[in-house]
Design brief:
Helix content: 25-40%
Order of helices and strands: HHHEHHHEHEEEEEEEEHHEE
Largest sheet: 4 strands, antiparallel
Number of strands: 12
Number of helices: 9
């Protein structure tokens, strides 16, 4: 059989115990501290600035990087690590931050009584932290953030393309973008926090990197990756097929492409791959542009959501 312990009774017991240990005689328990006393007044709402600060703390703002990656070998160069934030851990983080002003047992009890609603307010404020820091307008969140997941990416790609973008979707196909946090912690380390559990995360170069270009081949030559020019597959690659370009100066360094002869070579290659009807006399400027365009590069990841069943044979080591 268990009994419910009221905060007032608990506080009275603590005060009596402290007095007994100090050798102070006690004739009665203070009336104000008994269960029969009038209920305490409702606690005032915490300041908005305090809730915002705790919401940022929930998203790991201000937390030393050593708390996230205590050993450098856990995040080696050219690696990505997916994770989720344990709510018990973040709750204790908020608990510790809220206990800074605790100076007495009464303060401690008051903090514990207010901790659960304080955590909920911080979770409700978390989805709008990034927009607020970017000085963008956003509507208040209807539900607390969570589960909070994310990844750490350590790569030369982070420093080479500061404008990296991310796209993430959950099992229902819903987008998890914009992220709760998307920030470079170091020149080559990127931290991303998502509001939900992703089944696919795509890291891609900024869209403004789209340009005309060619693929460098061996011997100082350059090739163009062939793409479909019509129908539902327009713009998609034709397998791994490539067509050599024609340069005005041959393979001499610094030579430029002969557009007319390269277009003729592309026409022949597209006809051979059945991407254009036989007898086509020339490709249009739009069709040439489809062949020459180099879109932004991207890399998809499918993070593992749960521990796999015990394998009957040694499993391959995961790269993520």
């Amino acid at each position: 059989m268990t009994a419910t312990l009221k905060p007032q009774q608990y506080l009275a017991d603590l005060l009596s115990l402290a007095a007994a240990r100090a050798g102070v005689p006690t004739t009665r328990t203070p009336t104000a501290m008994t269960a029969a006393a009038a209920p305490p007044a409702a606690m005032p709402a915490p300041p908005t600035a305090a809730v915002r600060w705790l919401a940022e703390l929930m998203l790991l703002y201000g937390l030393p990087f050593e708390y996230l990656v205590p050993v450098a070998g856990m995040l080696p160069p050219e690696s990505i690590r997916f994770f989720f934030l344990d709510q018990n851990w973040t709750n204790r983080l908020i608990d510790g931050a809220a206990s800074v002003g605790v100076a007495s047992t009464v303060d401690e009890l008051s903090t514990y009584a207010a901790l659960e609603p304080l955590v909920r307010q911080a979770a409700l404020a978390a989805p709008s932290v990034r927009a607020r820091l970017l000085k963008r307008d956003t509507a208040p969140a209807a539900a607390p953030a969570g589960p909070i997941t994310g990844f750490l990416l350590r790569s030369a790609v982070v420093s080479g393309w500061p404008g990296l973008e991310v796209a993430a979707t959950d099992a229902a196909g819903n987008s998890l973008v914009p992220p709760l946090r998307f920030e470079r912690l170091a020149p080559d380390i990127l931290l991303c926090l998502l509001n939900g559990l992703p089944v696919e995360v795509v890291v891609k170069q900024p869209t403004e990197t789209m340009h005309f270009g060619v693929v460098e081949a061996s011997g100082g030559t350059y090739q163009v990756t062939l793409r479909h020019v019509g129908g539902a597959e327009a713009g998609t690659q034709i397998g791994t097929q490539q067509c050599p370009t024609v340069q005005r100066g041959g393979n001499a360094p610094g030579s430029v492409i002969n557009v007319q002869q390269t277009a003729a070579a592309l026409l022949a290659a597209l006809v051979a791959d059945k991407a254009l009807p036989d007898g086509t006399a020339a490709i249009s400027s739009a069709q040439l542009a489809i062949q020459m365009v180099q879109s932004a590069g991207l890399q998809p990841f499918q993070p593992q959501q749960s521990p796999p069943a015990a394998p009957s044979a040694p499993a391959a080591k995961s790269s993520g």
